[in-house]
Structure formats: C-alpha cells, structure tokens
Design goal:
By secondary structure, the protein is α/β, with parallel strands linked by helices. The protein is built from ten helices and ten strands.
C-alpha cells in the first residue's frame, strides 16, 4: 500500500504555497492544531523535515522544495480540472477570465479585449488586482491571463509564462501651447510636471534625461496609476511623461499635444499565464494576434 497520504500532501502543499498555517487552516477549514499535526505526520511518512519552524513562520526546507515540484504537478492539475468541470467541459460558450493590474492603462485594456466584443460565444470576466493578487489568481486557476506592465520570472516551484504584448513609446504631452520650442531643453525648465512614481522605469529614465538637460523638474504630481496620470495630464495644465497609448484619445481630440517622444524609453505590456493542460482556445487566439504584431 502506498505510504503517501494525499490529504496530508495537500495540506503540506497549501501551507508551503501560502506560507501561513493559520490562514490555510481557516480556508480548508480545519483547526490549526490538527493541520500542524497532520503535516508532522506527513513529514514522518516521507522521512524528511519539510519545514523549518522559525517562531510563527514555516520556511520550506530543501527537501520540501523538491517535494513541492511533485505536489505542484498533482494539485494544480487537480484544481485546473475542477475549474474546467465547473465551467462546463462540453460547453460551446468560452469564458475568458482576465486579470488586470490595478494601475494599468485602460486604453491598453480596451485594445486587448476589442477583438472579442463580436464573439457571441465568448463571455469575459475582468477583474483588477495587485500583481501579487493576480499571480495568486493564476495559480488557483481563477484567472486565465493577467495583464501587467511588469515582467514576471518563474521559479522551480511555479512557472509563469510571460509574453511581451506591446512596446509603447513614451512622450512628453501637455496642453496645446504649453511650450513653444519642444526640441529645446530650455523650453522645459520652467514647466510643471506630472510623472510616474520613482519605482517606475519611465520616471527613472525621465530623471536621467533631465540630468543630461541640466535642470531639476518641478514635479507637481506623481502617481503609479496610469488612469490617474491620464486624469492629471488632462486637467492639471502641466506637462506629463507617460506612454502615449494612455492619452491616445486626448491627443486625437486635440485636448493634449505630444511634444516629444523620449529616446530609448518605452512602456512595456505583458500577458502572464501559467503552465496548464487546458486553456480557453480564445486565449491562444488573442495572444497570437500580438505574436504576429511583434513579428512584423
């Protein structure tokens, strides 16, 4: 008879994945003491210590990480199957569950889902969340794809698949007539600015450009939210530094003017998925559109 108790293995996998014994106990649900006891029994059955107990924290050992590779294969496929059954194996209608980074440009999102609007057999479920929340949703098969402006690297325990969807130019934009000679660094020295926060690569590139132009920008407002930057660019009267896709409509309407494209600066947009046996066919179709664009 097999020595493996798959219930105990599942408990180990949940705690190792989430890193919090009490939260896992509440979600299963089972008492924390019973959960701890069953994990100890599992350690005894496999003959290895799977966690280092450091105060209230459980840290996965090397043996635990090796076992996690097998547990991931077993239980992520189980959760994927459960999700597939829940949404209907034979259903003609496809549901595409899209997670969107809270701070992502809505214009980019509009462009991503636009090809799907005329598909009568496709139902969209769209949520916004932090990057951590999106990755958690992918790992639990609650999402099919996450759209972000940051690449994500996989590990041995969890393989994320990252596809670069679009590389967007970054420009200085502002109200028409805000400055006269947009190609002259001197024209920008007296301007007020709306920019991304310092954790954004666009902000760092812009500050490097200001250093070369030998002036310190007068920052009126900063935000890590592209929707907020769009609002500020439209209403503040200041110059803004952001991907032009964010204010595409305002430029087309003449509300804002693109003064200068920043050299060697761009905003990247990614689709993050997780390795799985089944995915909605429509997801492959929409991602293939971007693969074709990148090849052109």
């Amino acid at each position: 008879m097999s020595r493996l108790n798959y219930r105990h293995m599942y408990y180990f996998w949940r705690v190792a994945s989430e890193g919090n014994l009490s939260e896992v106990a509440r979600s299963i649900p089972v008492s924390q003491s019973a959960l701890s006891s069953q994990i100890r029994q599992f350690e005894e059955s496999v003959g290895a210590q799977l966690f280092d107990r450091r105060g209230r924290r459980l840290v996965v050992t090397d043996a635990g990480r090796r076992l996690m590779r097998y547990a991931n294969d077993i239980f992520t496929k189980g959760e994927e199957l459960e999700s597939l059954i829940r949404h209907g194996i034979e259903s003609d209608e496809q549901t595409l569950r899209i997670g969107m980074l809270t701070t992502l440009s809505r214009n980019f999102m509009d462009g991503f889902i636009a090809p799907l609007f005329n598909r009568t057999n496709v139902r969209l479920s769209i949520t916004t969340d932090s990057l951590e929340g999106l990755l958690d949703g992918l790992s639990r098969h609650q999402l099919d794809v996450a759209l972000t402006n940051a690449d994500v690297q996989g590990t041995d325990e969890q393989i994320w698949q990252s596809q670069l969807l679009s590389v967007q130019s970054v420009s200085i934009v502002g109200p028409p007539g805000a400055i006269k000679k947009s190609k002259s660094p001197k024209a920008y020295r007296s301007a007020r600015w709306v920019v991304p926060t310092r954790d954004n690569e666009i902000r760092r590139a812009f500050e490097g450009l200001c250093t070369r132009w030998q002036f310190t920008p007068d920052i009126q407002a900063e935000s890590n939210d592209m929707a907020m930057l769009r609002l500020l660019a439209r209403n503040s009267g200041a110059l803004a530094v952001l991907p032009t896709v964010v204010v595409r409509d305002e430029i087309a309407q003449g509300v804002l003017k693109e003064y200068q494209t920043l050299p060697n600066v761009h905003g990247d947009f990614y689709a993050i998925t997780i390795r799985r046996t089944f995915a909605p066919p429509v997801l492959d179709e929409v991602l293939a559109l971007y693969t074709s664009e990148q090849a052109e």
